[in-house]
Backbone:
């Protein structure tokens, strides 16, 4: 067999194999995202994992015979609940921190626009629903109730 | 022959107009169709140029056997295939009758593939894009499973952004807009949302104009890295420039991140925006309950990929969602994947967004402007040149819905009223109203999604009113209707009605009491203080509303 034909034959086998080069590159990228989860900010962790899962779903769809991709996808899927909990908690903490700062700003000024106070109360009500029974939120609601509307 | 003579004499008795020569074949098929049911006396040949009575058609189609339905559909298709651009309503009527036959056929378990083929051919040859769209939406309503149908429906419920437009010519240096206002800069945490991803935020003018340079490396190594340059501009709402990029291929990605002002903040932007019927730009309408803009945006930019919010939206969520949206675009995600990324863990109200593939958006759109929302509209009603658009009614009912969502009477008195009032009303067409009479007719039935809703038809008289008055009158009648539904006593029901109408005129936030009173209670000398005192005494309004109202009117 001439060398060129042998080379082309090898290429086509590689392209048709269950985990070809493109598949492996995707898997490496997804694995990098998963491995980096612990170092990602808590707020972003669920989003990073979701990116890995979406990439792995495409990889499995495009290379159904590549069992390594399926294994990696199963691993990513198993992390969803834990990671979502961490990120959601971080998001709530950040919102609570932002809202506390806004209340403090309004208290310093003494008064605030009616619309701003309405928006603040709306946000605190949402926090009360999400962080049911949290003493910090209860205290914030009391402070917000005492804010005076700018005439 | 006898039937034909009978029908002809019946048509004469009704003083029906003559049949135009181009419609003779179709007229013959329609006569034959309606002769088969109790509705024969309702049909007039000149009805071909008016919206056909689909309720009657459904009844007739259901009474036919499978063979009759298929034969009837075949005759309709043959007659309609010869029609030209001047007979769009007649074509739409033919398509609607075939849809009635198809619906009855599906319910009876018929093989409807011949009707599907015919309707696809009719859609392909339609001279008016709204007729093609109507056929697509009817397929969606019947959930017809066919790859050709899926491809047609995809045009109107796109499952993926148009990447050929967004990254045209393989661009990797992208320009995007973030159009916001004072509160966006003040409360949006824009800098934090982008800087924590490594983006460079430059302040070109304090509180007015920032430039963000955001390099996004895609997760799939086969895709190129994209550098997004985002202009964050403080234009304030109601800027005439809001939609100015819709016809530009240089900027195909935009977010509007500001107040909704209960459906008015995009008025100028939409009115003054460029013509761009084919634009498939990606445009995130990130204001509170931005669904109120859907009926106008979808008509102004029928191919646009708009993302709407269903409920209130926080300023801090806007840049965070946009940042994730840009990551999703860089990775060539479809809308389902984008929805997942935006929702992943940290977004506050991730279920608030209606992406372009979400059929719920059809609840807010009225593409042919007949006052019936697209999710319920089974027939394309060709707009009359001299008639006010029924979209005005659709818009007003949708906005009145949002007032119900915000109204204290539903939010704070949950012991007497359910808080789930918003979005239980659906625009349902136009009726001939009486001067000074009610502006709505409301009936309750099941919607296209299988849920019980209140359908609001609006009087033609209301279409001639100013938008604020129209919305206030509709909101008042919806409020009274809700009171009846809940079994409230007359005093409470009338108060609910009043509160909603006054809210539309912004009376509770310093709007003009006189404007509201004079428009809705002509001749009345009722003063605002008496009203608020009454409401306060009867514990009808949340205390801060009354307090704010009094602060805004200190001399009363």
Residues:
């Amino acid at each position: 067999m001439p060398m060129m034909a042998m080379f082309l034959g090898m290429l086509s086998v590689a392209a048709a194999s269950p985990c070809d080069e493109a598949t492996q590159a995707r898997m490496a990228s997804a694995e990098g995202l998963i491995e980096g989860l612990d170092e990602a900010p808590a707020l972003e962790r669920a989003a990073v994992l979701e990116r890995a899962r979406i990439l792995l779903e495409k990889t499995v769809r495009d290379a159904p015979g590549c069992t390594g991709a399926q294994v990696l996808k199963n691993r990513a899927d198993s992390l969803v609940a834990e990671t979502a909990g961490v990120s959601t908690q971080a998001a709530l903490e950040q919102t609570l921190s932002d809202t506390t700062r806004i209340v403090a700003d309004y208290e310093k000024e003494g008064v605030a626009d009616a619309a701003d106070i309405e928006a603040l109360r709306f946000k605190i009500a949402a926090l009360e629903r999400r962080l049911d029974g949290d003493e910090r939120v209860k205290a914030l609601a009391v402070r917000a109730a005492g804010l005076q509307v700018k005439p | 022959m006898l039937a034909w003579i009978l029908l002809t004499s019946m048509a004469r008795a009704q003083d029906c107009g003559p049949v135009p020569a181009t419609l003779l074949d179709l007229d013959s098929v329609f006569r034959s169709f309606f002769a088969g049911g109790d509705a024969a006396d309702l049909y007039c040949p000149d009805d071909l140029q008016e919206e056909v009575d689909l309720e009657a058609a459904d009844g007739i189609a259901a009474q036919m056997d499978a063979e009759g339905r298929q034969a009837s559909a075949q005759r309709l298709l043959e007659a309609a295939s010869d029609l030209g651009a001047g007979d769009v309503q007649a074509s739409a009527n033919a398509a609607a009758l075939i849809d009635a036959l198809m619906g009855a056929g599906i319910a009876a378990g018929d093989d409807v593939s011949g009707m599907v083929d015919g309707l696809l051919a009719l859609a392909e040859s339609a001279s008016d894009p709204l007729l093609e769209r109507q056929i697509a939406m009817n397929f969606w309503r019947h959930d017809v499973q066919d790859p050709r149908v899926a491809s047609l429906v995809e045009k109107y419920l796109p499952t993926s952004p148009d990447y050929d437009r967004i990254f045209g010519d393989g661009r990797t240096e992208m320009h995007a807009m973030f159009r916001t206002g004072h509160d966006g800069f003040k409360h949006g945490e824009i800098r934090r949302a982008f800087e924590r991803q490594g983006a460079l935020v430059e302040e070109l003018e304090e509180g007015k104009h920032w430039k963000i340079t955001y390099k996004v490396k895609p997760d799939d190594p086969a895709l190129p890295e994209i550098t997004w340059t985002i202009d964050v501009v403080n234009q304030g709402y109601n800027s005439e420039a809001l939609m100015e990029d819709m016809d530009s291929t240089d900027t195909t990605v935009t977010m509007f991140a500001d107040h909704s002002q209960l459906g008015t903040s995009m008025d100028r932007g939409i009115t003054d925006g460029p013509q761009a019927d084919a634009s498939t730009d990606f445009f995130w309408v990130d204001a509170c309950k931005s669904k109120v803009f859907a009926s106008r945006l979808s008509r102004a930019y029928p191919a646009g990929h708009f993302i709407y919010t269903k409920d209130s939206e926080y300023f801090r969520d806007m840049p965070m969602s946009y940042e994730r949206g840009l990551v999703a675009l860089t990775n060539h995600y479809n809308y389902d994947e984008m929805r997942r990324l935006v929702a992943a863990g940290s977004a506050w109200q991730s279920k608030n967004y209606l992406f372009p593939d979400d059929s719920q958006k059809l609840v807010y759109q009225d593409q042919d402007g007949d006052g019936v929302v697209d999710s319920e509209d089974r027939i394309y009603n060709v707009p009359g040149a001299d008639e006010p658009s029924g979209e005005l009614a659709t818009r007003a009912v949708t906005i009145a819905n949002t007032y119900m969502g915000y109204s204290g009477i539903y939010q704070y008195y949950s012991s007497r009223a359910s808080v789930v009032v918003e979005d239980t009303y659906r625009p349902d067409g136009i009726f001939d109203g009486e001067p000074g009479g009610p502006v709505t007719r409301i009936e309750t039935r099941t919607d296209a999604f299988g849920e019980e809703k209140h359908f609001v038809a609006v009087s033609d008289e209301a279409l001639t009113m100013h938008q604020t008055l129209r919305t206030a009158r509709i909101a008042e009648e919806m409020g009274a209707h809700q009171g009846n539904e809940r079994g409230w006593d007359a005093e409470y029901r009338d108060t609910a009605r009043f509160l909603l109408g006054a809210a539309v005129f912004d009376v509770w936030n310093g709007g003009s009491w006189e404007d509201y009173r004079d428009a809705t209670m002509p001749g009345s000398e009722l003063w605002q203080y008496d009203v608020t005192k009454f409401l306060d005494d009867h514990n009808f309004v949340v205390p801060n509303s009354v307090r704010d109202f009094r602060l805004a009117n200190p001399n009363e």
Observations:
- The first strand of chain A starts at residue 111 and ends at 112.
- The interface with chain B takes residues 22, 25-26, 28-30, 33, 41, 43-47, 49-52, 54-55, 58, 83-84, 86-88, 90-91, 95, 98, 102, 114-115, 117-118, 122-123, 126, 149, 151 of chain A (CB under 8 Å).
- Residues 18-78 of chain A form one domain.
- Helices of chain A lie at 3-16, 21-35, 42-62, 67-78, 80-109, 114-130, 135-145.
